[in-house]
Design brief:
275 residues; rod-shaped; two-stranded antiparallel sheet; single chain; mainly alpha
């Protein structure tokens, strides 16, 4: 008996089947690609908002520090005015302790500002800045970055002036110091007291200043010195400080506040990230 074997056999696929399989594969790849893009965009958006929240907090710290710096510079300006008044009116000897403390305060590097905005660098150098869609906010951040660079340059100028003149300035009116390289040592420390903050008065005006622990010797002689040259150096120093404050620091403060307001409007969730 003849047996017929029917092997499983399929005829060639129709072109419609090929198109259907191609479309299904294309759709699967496309959807996977879109899903990955969406996931990546969500991750980037989250990273951006996280850095923006950090920036807001750091800007709040910057504005507080800029205010402290401005107050210190204002007091330094007043202190120089007090010294000039004592010199002009020949009142140094009768106010020698006040003069000494004013002189010490002016010689401090007070009022120097250094930004703590690490988030600003993150935004710039990781490319996250371009993900901020609000053009006004992005522009405000760029302006603040320029302000910080300008302040840094001004602070460098001030520090260089201090490096060049401070030792001679510090030792001009008094005989209680002796320079050893970059260090200063007291020559007269047998008797006296140490102060860290004090009220200083001149002509019915008083300022309260905080000092590094400052030794006031019981014997506080004022030596003969070129008063006009001394004042000129103080005026130059204050001129540098005031130009930094008026032209750069105040502008930086305004720009920082502008960024904070724009962040709070554009990223309201950052208000929940206060520490």
């Amino acid at each position: 008996m003849e047996v017929h074997h029917h092997a499983g056999h399929h005829g060639p696929k129709k072109w419609k089947e090929y198109i259907t399989e191609f479309l299904m594969l294309f759709l699967a790849v496309t959807l996977g690609f879109l899903a990955e893009n969406i996931r990546e965009e969500q991750v980037i958006a989250h990273q951006t908002e996280s850095v923006i929240a950090q920036l807001r907090l750091e800007l709040m710290q910057d504005t507080a520090q800029l205010t402290v710096s401005k107050n210190a510079r204002s007091k330094s300006d007043t202190a120089v005015g007090f010294i000039a008044y004592f010199i002009k009116n020949k009142q140094l000897k009768e106010n020698k302790e006040t003069f000494y403390l004013l002189h010490t305060y002016v010689c401090y590097r007070s009022g120097l500002f250094e930004s703590g905005c690490l988030a600003l660098d993150q935004l710039k150098y990781t490319g996250l800045l371009k993900n901020i869609k609000n053009e006004k906010l992005r522009h405000a951040i760029e302006l603040y970055s320029i302000s910080l660079k300008n302040i840094e340059n001004r602070m460098t100028r001030e520090s260089n002036f201090m490096d060049k003149n401070i030792d001679e300035l510090r030792t001009s009116p008094f005989d209680i110091y002796k320079a050893y390289g970059e260090n200063l040592a007291y020559l007269n420390t047998e008797k006296g007291r140490i102060v860290t903050e004090v009220d200083l008065a001149c002509n019915n005006t008083t300022i309260h200043v905080r000092l590094l622990p400052t030794f006031i010797p019981e014997n506080l002689p004022i030596k003969s010195f070129n008063e006009q040259e001394y004042l000129n150096t103080l005026f130059k120093l204050n001129g540098i400080r005031n130009s930094t404050q008026d032209r750069q620091s105040d502008l930086a403060y305004t720009r920082a506040v502008d960024i904070i307001k724009n962040i709070e409007a554009e990223y309201p969730n950052t208000l929940n990230n206060q520490h």
